[in-house]
Input
Amino acid sequence: MGWNDHIDEDGGFSDFLGEILPHLEGAANGITKLVIDKGDGCLSEKQRFVFERDVISVYVTEECARCGADIPWSEMYAAHDNGGFCNYCEHMMAKQERE
Output
């Protein structure tokens, strides 16, 4: 499953982009705002390259590093922040550490 498979259905993709927007600078920030407003279909080839390089390849974690499950957009920023784990695995690992 590629990152753009999610865009067709959105499924929270715009919300995810809104979460990471404060962390983006320069062209990546402006292009991401454009994608939130108009979708990725409006991007030029150069904009798409920047978006994929500076946003998608940095912030998207397609599957959990522990269980291999697909990570939904609603958990994507947290997965980026926690090392690539879905919420369930992150919770279970934290629980194991406490025990």
